[in-house]
């Protein structure tokens, strides 16, 4: 068979197939919705992972160092003294701003707030900061109200925290232990982890929690990204203090490690099982679709069409179903889940991280790729089976 | 001809189709099994919680310490039988990824409070006689290959030893506890409070939280309120709630997994119903002639209907059943993989039963329309299609 004749046959059979889809709408709809279900779930699960990762790594910077007491892996487990902070301010590689070294000593405590939608309390981080914090973390931006005033019981709340917990709107008052705090502003942090926190003045927080002059961590802005190694060596080998430094990128990656393990192990087990189920379901529907047309296919063969164009046209049809299914499933999951707000616990700091599901175009492409694979396999095997049957036998069948 | 012969002939009529339907249903139930296990793990023991135990913690958060002296005060209160305390140690064994719960306790009192924790008399005596002695759950011991008598170094992240900076605490493993209660955390590491309190560099006399046993579970809310009232306006106010409420709150911290699991399962079952239902319908369509023949041979409409229904139930329920069996097999593997994060991972008998029931129900739902169609076929019309 010549190439031209082959192509012409392919075109004819494929067009015939597509024109008759409407007459076979029941079977076709099953194939499409089957694929839509699989793609929809895949995209939803991965969009949750993507949304979480975006928050946790959103503030990854190599020119900011996180300093904790040596051996501590999280802020809650670390204590720094005023003397530690002075050592940091004199360390090499530290950037300087209008008010001296860009070192932000911070206090990290956890308070209970009622989680929206759950009706129970959850651990929300309350961070005490000084003016330097806003210079070290330049991504912080007040989007409503104003900054807290030093020395007063005022707080500003992260965008994520105000969406996930009750009573954290500008103007609200929150009671913590025996003191009350007024919410005076709301801030964003480039989508990063700080948006899940409440911030206030360090001095006020130290007094409320009887922490004297101690801190949990220091965030240090370096002159540039190459300065980290020198800075780290200087402070870790300083005999006056017992400190450990990591870049903010490393620190955040370690923080999210347990959740990443969960997402990769559990998420992929579910996706793998679903895909296996989906391939069988798709094969089943395509077998059914082809087998209900075995007479038609035999008729085409009797009319002189050869096997290859018949196989080709069935695969094309199956792939078209898969793509339509992917579009339906992807659209449904975008509509239902994009921007869906959730909060979960970050095991490393034992506090809540608020995040939004992110249905990205990359994820939608992954859904489409999966659909293509399922559609190709699901169409190819039954098409070969149909094309190999004897024409006479198939024509006699109902 | 027996019903069994007829059904087995029908299923063998198109082996590919039977195999494919079987496999897709099998995977659907495997997913059901795995998701049920995860949901159990996430509920963090809400259902295992004892009704007569309260959790008493600092009002501001679990991470604020309380004075140990509260224990004696609470034990004097009406309705309270006993109180024990625990503290979050949060140390690291070898690598931070080897996460497990560690807490100092008072051995004899702790074992009285938790009858779920089973420790032999001999191990108990050894624990009380060894100052740096520790006991660990069976699952934890197996994960790290420990043996009785091993010295286990734990790097402090919060609690340093006085004058020893970041040096590891060294414990001697004197006992391995087990629990007959399905899903009870067998990954805890417990050591002696007196040893801990004397050696720690700060916070002496301060503990993390109390477990309080009440006399009458029905009066637990009143006792909880009385405890909170007693410590009101003190520097360390408390928050008391039942163990179940505490566990439920903790599970909510992780997130609304129930909703996510249910939506995934909904999508999966919808898809499977659609596919399996379509296959059964088609299978009946193709056999119209044969069904007509059965009717002509004297099979009643009811019997034909039952045949098709049985066929569908046999296929779907067998596949579903095997899917559930397979998830029970997977449970073991997943447990060792995820034990660090989800100590409560388990396929509960009720979930297993629910899965089996669902398999049966799916078979019925899938078969009911084709079966009705087979029943209503007119014999003469059907025979023409033979």
Produce the secondary structure layout.
The complex is a heterodimer of chains A (398) and B (386).
Chain A: H1 3-19, H2 25-57, E1 64-69, H3 82-90, E2 96-97, E3 100-101, E4 103-114, E5 121-129, H4 132-136, E6 141-145, E7 154-158, H5 159-164, E8 173-176, E9 179-188, E10 198-201, H6 202-208, E11 217-221, H7 228-236, E12 243-247, H8 248-291, H9 294-302, H10 307-337, E13 341-346, E14 351-356, H11 361-388, H12 391-396
Helix pairs in contact in A: 1-10, 2-8, 2-10, 2-11, 8-11, 10-11
Chain B: H1 3-13, H2 15-42, E1 53-58, E2 66-67, H3 70-75, E3 80-86, E4 102-105, H4 107-113, H5 121-129, E5 133-137, H6 138-144, E6 151-154, E7 169-177, E8 189-192, H7 193-199, E9 206-207, E10 209-214, H8 220-230, E11 238-242, H9 243-254, H10 257-286, H11 288-296, H12 301-338, H13 349-376, H14 379-384
Parallel strand pairs in B: 4-8, 5-7
Antiparallel strand pairs in B: 1-10, 1-11, 2-9, 3-10, 5-8, 6-7
Helix pairs in contact in B: 1-12, 2-10, 2-12, 2-13, 10-13, 12-13
Can you characterise this structure?
The complex is a heterodimer of chains A (398) and B (386). Chain A is α+β, with helices and mostly antiparallel strands and 398 residues long. Chain A has helices at residues 3-19, 25-57, 82-90, 132-136, 159-164, 202-208, 228-236, 248-291, 294-302, 307-337, 361-388, 391-396; strands spanning 64-69, 96-97, 100-101, 103-114, 121-129, 141-145, 154-158, 173-176, 179-188, 198-201, 217-221, 243-247, 341-346, 351-356. The longest helix of chain A is centred in the C-terminal third of the chain and has 44 residues, at 248-291. The mean pLDDT of chain A is 85. Chain B is of the alpha+beta class and 386 residues long. Helices cover 54% and strands 14% of the residues of chain B. Chain B has helices at residues 3-13, 15-42, 70-75, 107-113, 121-129, 138-144, 193-199, 220-230, 243-254, 257-286, 288-296, 301-338, 349-376, 379-384; strands at residues 53-58, 66-67, 80-86, 102-105, 133-137, 151-154, 169-177, 189-192, 206-207, 209-214, 238-242. A 5-stranded mixed beta sheet of chain B has the order 4-8-5-7-6. The two termini of chain B are 20 Å apart. The mean pLDDT of chain B is 85. The chains are: A alpha+beta (398), B alpha+beta (386). The interface between A and B is large, with 68 and 65 residues.
